[in-house]
Write a structure and sequence with these properties.
The chain is of the alpha/beta class and 173 residues long. It is built from 6 helices and 6 strands. Strand 4 and strand 5 form a beta hairpin. Bound molecules: zinc ion.
Length: 173
Amino acid sequence: MTKRLCVPSNFRHDMISYVHDNCGHYAAQSLFHTLAARYYCKSMFADAVEYCKTCDVCQRTKINYGHRYAPLHPLSVPDEVGTRFSMDHKVLTHTTAAGNTAVLVIVECFSGFPHLIPVPDQTADTTARAIVQHIVPLWGFNFCYTATKPLHFLSALFAHVNVMLVIHQGLQS
Ligand SMILES: [Zn+2]
């Protein structure tokens, strides 16, 4: 059993300050272990954490990795079934006997109902055909898609869908 010096409360700040400032500005965990090997006081860990949080040198020089990522903005839950779908392609390792190279995965966001549609390629035209043949008859055409596809792909996709469903864009001035 090691003997540790029990530090009165009016000297705690000086003790933590001395060790932290003279030992390379340890982070709270390392500071606590260094202190705990030599000294004892009841709230040492909390005091070490608090001191590291408020140390002026640490705040100016240490990189806070906790703030390096942009916050996530999850999509809201749709209000009803069949109004929002998410979509992506799963590329197959080899071409099937029917000539398909990928599976178009379309998931209805409210229920999580998946549609797995084998497709010969990943073009906007083929994807539009699959949507018109497999999704529109089941769910209607009042829907929106979320996909990780580039904007020009989605633009071409909806142009193809509109042509197949004979939907024309109306402009009002
Ligand atoms: Zn510091």
